[in-house]
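Example 3.
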Amino acid sequence: DTEVTQTPKHLVMGMTNKKSLKCEQHMGHRAMYWYKQKAKKPPELMFVYSYEKLSINESVPSRFSPECPNSSLLNLHLHALQPEDSALYLCASGGVGYFYQETQYFGPGTRLLVL
Amino acid sequence: GQQLNQSPQSMFIQEGEDVSMNCTSSSIFNTWLWYKQDPGEGPVLLIALYKAGELTSNGRLTAQFGITRKDSFLNISASIPSDVGIYFCAGLPNAGGTSYGKLTFGQGTILTVHP
């Protein structure tokens, strides 16, 4: 099973709202990722968690706050977003097996619209 | 930073035709991954390549890890309408270091298949 699940599928929020995106994987992967994707563009890395610790933050604005409660779960807390933050937010997991066979599996994404 | 040049940017083909797309890099990658993405969905991993020169098939798909470790190609044989989507190549650097786990994506190839 190579499934990464994400909820919600769609989210509409105002600029003063607080919301959270959730991601879950049960593949025993040691690393989990958040990406942002605009239409017809490749995903852009936001955060990497390795062994439940934040290892990479790609200079993401503080209105995006990641959290990794355990090895299977990854959250992205959203607060005071801007309309330009509207995008598809993708979660990915990877890192099972040997280091030289690294890969990443993506979830279906959350389509976020900020009004 | 590292960049991947993916070509062609788009392809319009007839059902039954074969398709070829490729990615080149100025830097060496340890792993090459090929993904397909349908509109509004997350990228789906098609093929993972881990060794220079490796040739791997997945049904009608064949991909190769270039011998110089700076390029990869994906072929689709006998295309069908459901092959429509955006195809992304992605490279992973060597294990270890601050860039470990950071995928570098190509810009994508938009494939249209006419019945």
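The longest strand of chain A covers residues 18-25. The mean pLDDT of chain A is 92.
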